[in-house]
Design brief:
By secondary structure, the protein is mainly alpha-helical. It contains eight helices and no strands. 11% of the residues are buried.
């Protein structure tokens, strides 16, 4: 075992703090805390998350986070372990932000199309009602519809069917 994990463990024990208490306070799983103490850095999540675990652990012990983070980075380098560089996380964060913006723009586009279709339907309905109003006032609306007699026939059939059903179920 190297110096980093052993020193970290000794600091925790000298303060009389149980690993379970640190896990509860920091919300970091005990397996990650044990991986730090045993210098099994491959078990830790990569890059900035591993640094965050170290900062939280060391902060819970009341130690200097900057100094211990640098020691952690050196211990990782000595163990042949390379952490993901900050650029990888910056790219990831950029892509997440870009994805959120694209989703928001897609929703806004859908709302614009829905509003446009609603506006078109309102204009079309207003045009129809205006056309019908002036057609009824001028008297040419009934001549415009070739199925005017069909409506009267359907109404007659409906009334006779209704009367037949009413007589059957009385």
């Amino acid at each position: 075992m190297g110096h980093f994990g052993e020193d970290l463990r000794m600091e925790r024990l000298s303060r009389g703090i149980a690993l379970e208490k640190i896990a509860t306070v920091t919300k970091i799983s005990q397996r990650h805390l044990l991986a730090l103490e045993e210098e099994k850095f491959r078990l830790l999540p990569g890059g900035i998350l591993a640094k965050g675990i170290v900062r939280s652990y060391v902060g819970a012990l009341g130690l200097d986070t900057t100094q211990w983070t640098e020691r952690f980075m050196r211990a990782c380098g000595d163990a042949g372990q390379t952490l993901d560089d900050e650029r990888g996380w910056a790219t990831f964060a950029f892509n997440v932000g870009k994805s959120r913006i694209m989703k928001r723009e897609a929703v806004e586009t859908r709302w614009r199309w829905a509003g446009s279709l609603l506006l078109f339907a309102i204009v079309l309905t207003a045009a129809f009602l205006t056309f019908r109003y002036y057609g009824l006032r001028a008297g040419w609306w009934s001549t415009l519809l070739p199925f005017h007699d069909l409506g009267l026939r359907l109404q007659t059939y409906w009334l006779s069917a209704y009367d037949w059903l009413a007589r059957r179920f009385q």
